[in-house]
């Protein structure tokens, strides 16, 4: 975390006071065919509905759609952008998902963004804190979201003894 990010970071106690609140919304991200094709190459998932515009046009979707896992994977960048920074954080990891639902397809050419509600803060042990986010990926111009997920992040904080100068 940079010095300016650290100055704006919130303490765990302050974050606890935000439980139940919408705490961040990311920028819009374009899901174009090039991004879909790149994801297909990385995951080796070349199902026609994602990568073959001609045949995908004959489906009820009317064209190619993003992989659900592509949309889910974008939560990482969206979260980095929109979630509050945690004061004293030295490391944050994805801890998992309790629930993921793909509610609407994202068609090639659409834009998506992430919205994050802080659902819970759980101090596992000193210096180790889990944050549960109600994450929604919205589709620009649509009323139904692409997905909803309960997303767990674990943060490791600098402990008091680590701040002490070595003897």
What does this structure look like?
With 167 residues, the protein is α+β, with helices and mostly antiparallel strands. The chain is built from 8 helices and 6 strands. Strands 1, 2, 3, 4, 5 and 6 form a 6-stranded antiparallel β-sheet that branches. The radius of gyration is 19 Å and the shape is elongated. The mean pLDDT is 92.
Please give a quick description of this structure.
This protein has helices at 3-8, 12-16, 33-43, 48-51, 53-56, 68-73, 75-82, 160-163, and strands spanning 22-25, 29-31, 89-102, 110-125, 128-139, 147-157. By secondary structure, it is an alpha+beta fold.
List keywords for this structure.
6 strands, 167 residues, 29% helix, alpha+beta, 6-stranded antiparallel β-sheet
Present the secondary structure layout:
Elements: H1 3-8, H2 12-16, E1 22-25, E2 29-31, H3 33-43, H4 48-51, H5 53-56, H6 68-73, H7 75-82, E3 89-102, E4 110-125, E5 128-139, E6 147-157, H8 160-163
Antiparallel strand pairs: 1-4, 2-4, 3-6, 4-5, 5-6
Percentage of residues assigned to helices: 25-40%
Structural class computed from helices and strand pairing:
alpha+beta
**Order of helical and strand elements:** HHEEHHHHHEEEEH
N-to-C span? 26 Å
| Low-confidence regions | none
Looking at the structure, what is the overall shape? elongated
The largest sheet, given as strand count, sense and whether it forms a barrel, is: 6 strands, antiparallel
Cα-atom radius of gyration: 19 Å
């Amino acid at each position: 975390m940079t010095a300016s990010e650290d100055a704006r970071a919130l303490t765990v106690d302050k974050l606890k006071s935000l439980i139940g609140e919408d705490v961040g919304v990311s920028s819009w991200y374009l899901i174009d065919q090039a991004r879909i094709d790149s994801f297909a190459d990385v995951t080796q998932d070349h199902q026609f509905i994602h990568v073959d515009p001609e045949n995908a046009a004959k489906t009820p979707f009317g064209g190619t759609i993003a992989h659900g896992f592509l949309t889910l994977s974008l939560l990482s960048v969206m979260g980095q952008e929109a979630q509050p920074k945690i004061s004293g954080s030295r490391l944050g990891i994805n801890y998992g998902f309790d629930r993921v639902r793909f509610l609407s397809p994202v068609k090639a050419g659409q834009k998506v963004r992430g919205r994050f509600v802080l659902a819970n803060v759980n101090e596992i042990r000193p210096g180790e804190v889990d944050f549960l986010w109600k994450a929604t990926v919205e589709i620009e111009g649509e009323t139904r979201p692409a997905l909803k997920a309960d997303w767990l992040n674990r943060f490791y904080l600098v402990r008091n003894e680590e701040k002490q100068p070595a003897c």
